[in-house]
Write a structure and sequence with these properties.
Blueprint lengths: L8 E9 L8 E4 L11 E8 L11 H18 L6 E4 L5 E5 L4 E8 L11 H4 L13 E8 L4 E8 L5 H15 L26 H5 E3 L16 E8 L1 H11 L8 H20 L4 E6 L1 E2 L1 H4 L4 H8 L6 E2 L2 E5 H6 L2 H13 L4 H14 L4 E3 L11 E4 L19 E5 L7 E7 L7 E8 H10 L5 E2 L12
Parallel strand pairs: 6-7, 11-16, 16-18
Antiparallel strand pairs: 1-6, 2-5, 3-8, 3-17, 4-5, 7-8, 9-15, 10-19, 10-20, 11-14, 12-13, 18-19
Helix pairs in contact: 1-3, 5-6, 6-10, 6-12
Length: 463
């Protein structure tokens, strides 16, 4: 059978899972870096083959019981995910940690795991396997498939957690399910991200971030088909190595994420040149600041490594379309490296914290996300190389596939490459770009971007 998009999902049960121990209600402020995030939800899902057990030991009901019990235990440490977001007296969001709990949905999908159309998640995953979060901070859905396989999916408020924090929780939840102690106890010590007195703000931050009162008018799309859609691709290690080789020149070493991003930037420029009168295109790359903020202080580094919240910055570059097309990949990779270089320092993140403090309580956001009517195409690459797919084992084996799912609704695209669970060095890449951009990428770079099917994943044994 081929890939299926159109299938029925039946919800059988909804309930709220709270922390197993009572928690004293308290308020947890957003850090200055949390305040830079818009109110958007992020999805993540994991696919499991049919579990092989004795009798009904691995029935859907028993697996759901394991998931719920382990979640109630994990929420004792990760209580932020059992909380609610409320405005404070000046209108800024804060967390009230009241053990409201997590909405947990049980469902059945009339589809075989191996026939899920993962290449087109908007039709096969969105609104079916990844839950819509209606209340609270986190929602979870466990879906039994026709073949006995299982999909476990979460949707969480990005203002509460970045991918690093969500990954910590997912691994801890799985450890609890296997009756292990959690390996990382999260820290909510907001003082780690306190602003300096007086603050020191580099002028470059005004280029990267803006108060929402300065937002440009919405971008006007010229074509009826001009819409952002999601697709998932598979990239072999050999192709990544080739891109990296082409991106390195004159003794300069470029990382795989720099090389991949440079190649993708060239592809987007090709679309812009064919499509309209755009003269420039912008690309941002998400940088995690935990390692930077811990530099030079062993204790602080240890605390930052388990800090729960957002510790992100999004530097970006803007280049003329014709230059991106005409110049070699190594030149584009150098431009990527140069704009990244300014944001991979301790001083950059300390300055960003101070910048937010200077603009509070007015909300602000990264400029790359505010793609106005006069701007060319823009997109953001967020490296998901720490995605813990192989560690999200609840006791019935590792996932055969896992991916973030982030059709966030803005005008800028979003791309997240993650390690493949099937073969070391290969990537799975979630891409949320305009349809015309993805169509050209599939035409011009089919040797690199292969539409994801389960043929690329490990499907030995039962399905």
């Amino acid at each position: 059978m081929g890939a299926e998009r159109d299938y029925t999902v039946t919800v059988s049960k909804k309930e709220v899972v709270a922390a197993v121990l009572p928690l004293q209600e308290h308020w947890l402020p957003f850090s200055n870096l949390d305040l830079l995030l818009p109110a958007v939800d992020v999805g993540v899902f994991f696919c499991y083959k049919k579990a092989v057990g004795v009798g009904d030991a691995m029935s859907f009901g028993s697996m759901v019981s394991v998931l719920k019990k382990a979640m109630a235990q994990a929420l004792v440490s990760y209580y932020a995910f059992a909380s609610e977001v409320v405005p404070n007296t000046v209108g800024e969001p804060e967390l009230v940690c009241n053990n409201r709990g997590v909405d947990f949905i049980e469902a059945y999908a009339d589809v075989e795991l191996r026939n899920l159309d993962l290449h087109n998640p908007d039709e096969s995953i969105e609104g079916k396997l990844v839950p819509k979060k209606k209340q609270g901070v986190l929602s979870v859905q466990a879906t039994e498939l026709r073949c006995g396989g299982l999909v476990v999916a979460c949707t969480f408020d990005h203002r509460i957690a970045d991918a690093y924090s969500a990954n910590m929780f997912l691994v801890s939840w799985a450890e609890m399910a296997r009756s292990k102690s959690i390996s990382v106890v999260p820290s909510f010590r907001r003082s780690l991200l306190n602003p300096r007195r007086p603050g020191r703000i580099d002028p470059s931050l005004d280029h990267m971030y803006m108060p929402i009162s300065s937002l440009p008018p919405p971008k006007q799309h010229h074509q009826a088909t001009d819409q952002l859609i999601s697709r998932i691709y598979y990239i072999a290690a050999e192709q990544l190595n080739e891109l990296q080789s082409l991106a390195c020149s004159n003794g300069y070493k470029r990382t795989k994420i720099e090389s991949f991003s440079a190649f993708l930037w060239k592809m987007v420029a090709l679309v812009a040149a064919k499509d309209d009168d755009s003269e420039v295109t912008k690309m941002g790359i998400v940088v995690d600041g935990r390692g930077r903020l811990g530099e030079g202080d062993k204790d602080r580094a240890s605390l930052m490594s388990c800090y729960f919240g957002n510790v992100l910055s999004i530097p970006y570059g803007s280049q003329r379309v014709n230059e991106l097309i005409e110049r070699p990949l190594s030149w584009v990779a150098n431009q990527v490296h140069n704009f990244l270089d300014q944001a991979v320092t301790k001083e950059h993140f300390l300055g960003l914290i101070d910048w937010v403090e200077a603009h509070r309580p007015e909300p602000a956001l990264a400029k790359i996300y505010s793609n106005g009517s006069d701007d060319g195409p823009a997109f953001v690459v967020s490296s998901g190389q720490r995605s813990p797919v192989s560690k999200v084992d609840f006791g019935w084996g590792c996932p055969v596939f896992g991916s973030y799912h982030f059709p966030w609704g803005g005008d800028a695209g979003y791309v997240m490459p993650m390690p493949s669970p099937a073969r070391e060095g290969d990537w799975v890449v979630y891409m949320h770009l305009f349809k015309r951009q993805l169509d050209l990428i599939e035409t011009e770079a089919s040797h690199v971007f292969r539409p994801l099917t389960f043929d690329y994943l490990d499907f030995s044994g039962s399905n």
